[in-house]
Each structure stands twice: as C-alpha cells, then as structure tokens.
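Deliverable D5.2: sample structural annotation.
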Amino acid sequence: MSTKKLTWLSVGLTAALTFGATGCSILPGNDSNGTVVKVVDGDTVDIRIAGEDTRVRLLNIDTPETVDPNKSVECMGPEASEHLKSLLAPGDKVDLEYDIERTDKYGRTLAGVYKDKSLVNADIAAAGLGIAVKYEPNVRFYDEVLQAQNEAAAKATGLFDPSAACTIPAQLEEATQAFEQLGEAPAESVKEAESLAGEAAAAIALGHGAKSALSKITPDMHPVTYALLTTHFKKHISKLDSSVLHANQVEQAHLDTKTALIKAEEKRKDEERKKKEAAKKKAAEAKRQAQLKQQREVAEQKAAERRRIEQQSKPRQKVPTYQAPKVQKPRTQAPKPRTQSVPRNYTGPRCYAPGGKSWKPCP
C-alpha cells in the first residue's frame, strides 16, 4: 500500500490525493469484470482485466499497512491481508465498478470490486479490518463502506476488538476498567484509605501509560490507526483525559481522608491516655486515702487498747447501787398519854412507854 496524504473527516475519513498525469485513462476492452490473480495486501489485488494483469486499489477503503518498506507493519495489517485472501482467491471471477477518476498517481486502477454481487471493499470494513475513506473526487462506495465499518465497531471486531493487544480499545480498556472500578466512598479506616488511594494511583498510572502509547501513533507511520484515533476514538481519548483528572481528585480525597483518620486516631489515643492517667491518679488517691483510714483505725484500736489496759490496772471501785430516795410519810402522832404525876422521890419499878422516853410507876 503506497503513501497517501489523507485528511480525515467525521467518523469517516477524507483524503486529498495528488493525482499524476494518468488522469482518467480508459482501459481497453471489457473492464467491468476480471479474474483474481493474487492479493497484494489488505486493500490491493492483482486482477486480469481484458487479458491484462492490472493492479487494483479498492476504492473508499483503507487497511492497515503491511508492505510499505518505509512504514512499520500496522496493527491488524497481516489480518487484513489474510482476510482479503480469504475473500478473493486466485481464479475467482469478479466484477468491477469505477468512479470519476479511474487511476491514481501510482498507476493503479481504482475500483469497487464485487464478488457474487457483494462489495468486497465493504466486506473488509465489515470485518473491522479497514476504515472508510474518501479519495476525492471518488466517493461512490464511501457510504456503504462506512456503514460496514460502523457495524464492525458495534460488534467490537477487528480494529475495534479490545481483546487484540495492538488495537486502540485494548490500550484503553485496562485504564478504562480501572477508572470504572474506582472506589469513591469515604474510607472508614486508615488501611482502607491507603488501599483506595493506591487503586486510584494505579488507575492514573494506567491512564498515563495509555496516553503515552497512543501518543506514539502518527499519521505517517500508522495512518489507519491514527485516523481511528482522531475520529472514531476521539471521544474515548477525551474521556481518558477527564478520567485521569477525576482519578487524581479521588486519590487526593482518599489521602485527605487518611490524614483525617490518622489525626482522629491520634486524638482518640491522646484522650485514652489522659483517661488512663486520670484513672491512675484517682486509683492512687483512693489507695492513699484507704491507707490513711487504715492507719487511723489502727491508731484508734491501739488507743482503745491502752485505755482498756489502764482501766484494768486501776483498783475497782464499787459503784453504788442507785436507790430511790425514801419518801417519808408524815407521822401520825399518837395522842400523848395522860401523864400522871409521879412522886418526885419515887424509887419503885418504872414502866417505860415505847421509845423509852417516858415512864410511869409500874402498877
């Protein structure tokens, strides 16, 4: 596939070609059908037309490079060549249709090739192995090829297959999945915050890695891949940039949470330490008070013992029994007996009255 200067438009691609003096030469004889001789690459085939071997460049389709000595083999280039070989085997009968300009500056015939009434140009795009491109003024087959390309993109096949390591989707997929799986909920522990921040950092690294790899795709060395990058995958690249920015914000949020959790843990530990110190002081004071109380009790016991001993060493004194005071009843004095005169010089027997205070001569 020779060097082309392409200008890509919309989902498809517009190419401005500088054509040589070959102009619009008309092939002699019946040029509407031919026989396949061999496949050159993914979009070029040698066909015997009107008895002459003719190199035909399929119109409005561009496949990854494989044979240009000045370019590296593009992603899916070998697969595109093999696919065209599976469509056009040597000896196959084909029909050809042309557009405004019949040849390019390299002398190749420009045509739409049909096999069994199926446009081979579009069949390549339907396999995801080529992209629709406008080679002004030749746009006759562009719409059909573009439709086939879009179907391939919807099916994620060929150049749109994320499982093929060299494709743009494959280079985007790992980073895209990492961004989609980012945990954004606030962490509840320092360990969790570290883990979430690490995941965000890893996603950011994947995003930068993908951007770095895609930045190496150039229009000169990778024309087809570059065309897809700047058209079909343009929104994906923009999303990659915004995802990296968002992941940076997520990482910072988790780092901030980690810092806050560490401070909260330090505060909790400090408060716990203060509580323990206060409890320790309280226990020490309680112990001191208990010791003082015990000392007082011991001292009181000793004092009581001394008093007991001193009491025992003193002579016992009889404690008088309490007696209620006697209430003396007023005496009723018996009438004094009538005294009889006693002779003053009486020496006879005397009879005393009770109490011994008075007497009288005994009869």
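Annotation notes: Helices lie at 77-87, 120-126, 142-155, 168-180, 190-215, 223-230, 234-313. Residues 234-313 form the longest helix (80 residues).
The annotation will be released with the project's public dataset once the embargo ends.
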